[in-house]
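Quick one:
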Amino acid sequence: MLQSFRDKRVLNLAQEIDKNPDYRIPELLLKVEDILSSVSSGSKQGLEIRKDLWTLELLHLTVSVLEQDVTKFRNAWTLTSRLVRILCNACSGLHMRDCNEYHTVFLPECVKCVLTLSKKVHLKLQKTLIYKKEVVKDITECLKTSLESLDLLCSGHNFLCYNVLKSEEFLEILMTEDANIVNIITTFFQNICRKSSGIMEEIGDSTVFTLLDELIFKITSSDKPEIAWASIKTVLLACDFNPSIVHHLCTRYKGLKPLLNRWHKKGFDLDLDRLILLLEAGSLEEVANERRNRAAAKIQALWKAHKTREAIKKRNESIARFQRSFRAKRVEKEQTKEKGRLQKELQHQLLINRKQTMKKFHEKVYLTLESVPASKIEEHLESERNKAAIKIQACYRSKLSRRRFNNQKEQIKTLRAVVVLQRSIRKWLKKVLARRNEPPAWQRPPGLDDQRRVELNEKIQLYKHLHPVRN
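Output:
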């Protein structure tokens, strides 16, 4: 019999529990947590350990311990949380199709045990709200851990969701008015609905009405937005998994819609509007159509707004471009007008300067003629004419020289380009001839005899010795 157990740690723990008194059993059962955490839950060894726990009735013993008065334990709330976690973890990974007792008797008993324990913890919490915050925090954490462990158990065995929602203990915990407990229990309720999509139809109308009555009561009578929001999310999730609940909401709670308006602008308008839309539509199909219509209207509004913004943007850009062009043309026109005015002033000033220069020149000529004797006037005039002719000839020759130089500049540029091209061709031809004169690769280079080869090998070995390869 002892050889049938594959994990000796479980067998040793069972023998140790059998030898110790009852008050030490809860602390000894905590060792199961270390055994379970040492292996993966989905592995073959993990399944064998869980089967050994079932065979040695350690799971039954854990349920029996949890059914006792847990307040007598040392570190009661932490110990209770760990025991519940151990029980649900062990059962969630254990599937025995050949054992009818495990599925039909023991697992429902585990669910009832955990819910009863959660109810006791909840009642204890209501009585200890006036105590220290540390005590309230420990009790709340114990309740949260218990429900999370039960959620894990239902994940491994979905049929247990029916037992959870049909139990009176679950309904009693749901009736709490504490915001933290409401968030914990509604989150657990939502997870149960997600695990079994048809659970709301399986539990029957009477249970559904009871749960809905409590949730609607919290929405309408509670003064805390957290409780109302958690209840609204739970109702919406139940409607998603069971469309018939929408009809019950519209017929059973006809005055609910006006009572929901007081929760506007409390931080959960999206879920609140969805619930109001459900009450107005009367069915999920109508809600879906209305949501599609609203989505289409919103998309159209966004598209029209986008097109309007684009049109305004283009219009602004066109106006800005027109203004910029108009200002540029106006500036250009003013600059042209100013340039013309300055040109006319310059021409007028040049004309005046020329007239003044000619006047001074004529005055100088007259003064010169007055100083020249009458007999030498013709000689003086001839000399002036020669000077003028020489100056005209010099100006003409300089003009011809400049024209001739401009023509020669293109010729010089062409000649330089020809010289550069010839130089490049000569270099290329020189490289080609040098390559042709090189000896072929298969021919031994001149001067390479055996003595020269030995000298080269010695130089190579010396270089390798001085420069070793680094690994």
